[in-house]
């Protein structure tokens, strides 16, 4: 059900993971474990999946926090003020948010992806952790950099932050139009390091992982502190959800991080 997401080195009191689809029914693009409640899946199935995950992690359902993502670059801080809100205000605070930062222990923060890059971050010394959803739009907007900035405002230090990217679409699978390439160029990415062309079709392919690595490095992270999963969601659609393979009306892989201390 869960696959551990490893940083470059173990961090005391910090755990990160991505969910696995489980036993897949090829006729159901939401099977078998989907936690995302705004992609067309049955609401009770989603609730059951969340309860199952909370039980496995040994937390209350209220301790599982995820935003309603819109490919924005908005970052929300999950603190005691957020925890004291009623459910309606919490949902409003998470609307249109694509990254979370917290220093609370026992609270699992996470994002849902189906080809986009999930990024978990942690500063062991300060106890500050974060998670971000970086699709191509979020990557162009440098959401990973915005998360690092917020972590530092809360007391982290960029040169201490460890980051790990979870399962996402590989460059070979991520074919894009020239307008997407232009967006990366406008945002001053080094196209030579992130863009390749298919020799047969001439179509562009972007390496979202490399692009986000560059964003993290420019935000002050040490290159040796960035880990990258080599699992491709599209190639391994039997293990992870892939919108490119299954369509947008499909489940999402949940990538979470939490403090145990």
* Individual helix count: 9
In one word, what is the shape? globular
Q: Regarding quaternary structure, how should these chains be classified?
A: single chain
Could you state the order of secondary-structure elements as H and E? EEHEEHHEEEEHHEEHHEEHEHE
Distance between the termini: 23 Å
Radius of gyration: 17 Å
Percentage of residues in strands: 15-25%
Write the layout of secondary structure elements.
Blueprint: E1 2-4, E2 14-19, H1 43-57, E3 64-65, E4 75-78, H2 80-83, H3 87-94, E5 99-102, E6 108-113, E7 117-123, E8 128-134, H4 136-140, H5 143-153, E9 162-165, E10 175-176, H6 178-186, H7 191-194, E11 195-197, E12 204-206, H8 208-218, E13 226-228, H9 243-246, E14 253-259
Parallel strand pairs: 3-6, 4-5, 9-13
Antiparallel strand pairs: 1-2, 2-14, 5-8, 6-14, 7-8, 7-9, 10-12, 11-12
Helix pairs in contact: 5-8
What does this structure look like?
This protein has a single domain (2-259), classed as CNF1/YfiH-like putative cysteine hydrolases (4-Layer Sandwich). 27% of the residues lie in helices and 23% in strands. The protein contains nine helices and 14 strands. It has helices at residues 43-57, 80-83, 87-94, 136-140, 143-153, 178-186, 191-194, 208-218, 243-246; strands at residues 2-4, 14-19, 64-65, 75-78, 99-102, 108-113, 117-123, 128-134, 162-165, 175-176, 195-197, 204-206, 226-228, 253-259. It has a six-stranded mixed beta sheet. Strands 1-2-14-6-3 form a five-stranded mixed beta sheet, with no helix packed on it. It has a three-stranded antiparallel beta sheet with strand order 10-12-11. Strand 11 and strand 12 (204-206) form a beta hairpin. Helix 5 packs parallel to helix 8. The longest helix has 15 residues, at 43-57. It is globular and about 55 Å long. It starts with a strand and ends with a strand. The model has no long low-confidence stretch (mean pLDDT 98).
């Amino acid at each position: 059900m869960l696959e551990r997401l490893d940083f470059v080195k173990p961090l005391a009191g910090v755990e990160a993971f991505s969910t696995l689809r489980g036993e897949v029914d090829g006729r159901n693009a939401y099977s078998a474990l989907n936690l995302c409640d705004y992609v067309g899946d049955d609401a009770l199935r989603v609730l059951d999946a969340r309860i199952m995950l909370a039980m496995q992690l040994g937390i209350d359902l209220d301790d599982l926090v995820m935003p309603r993502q819109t490919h924005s670059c908005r970052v929300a801080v999950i603190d005691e003020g957020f925890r004291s809100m009623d459910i309606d205000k919490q949902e409003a605070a998470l609307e249109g948010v694509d990254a979370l930062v917290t220093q609370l222990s026992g609270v699992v923060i996470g994002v849902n992806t189906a080809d986009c890059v999930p990024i978990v971050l942690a500063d062991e010394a300060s106890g500050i952790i974060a998670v971000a959803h970086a699709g191509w739009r979020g990557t162009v907007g440098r959401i990973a950099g915005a998360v690092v900035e917020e972590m530092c405002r809360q007391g982290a230090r960029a040169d201490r932050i460890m980051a790990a990217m979870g399962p996402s679409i590989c460059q070979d699978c991520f074919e894009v139009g020239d307008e997407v390439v232009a967006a990366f160029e406008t945002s001053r990415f080094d196209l030579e390091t992130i863009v390749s062309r298919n020799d047969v079709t001439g179509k562009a392919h972007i390496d979202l992982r490399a692009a986000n690595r560059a964003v993290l490095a420019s935000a002050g992270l040490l290159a040796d502190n960035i880990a990258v999963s080599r699992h491709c969601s599209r190639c391994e659609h039997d293990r992870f959800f892939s919108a490119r393979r299954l369509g947008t009306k499909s489940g999402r892989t949940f990538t979470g991080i939490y403090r145990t201390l």
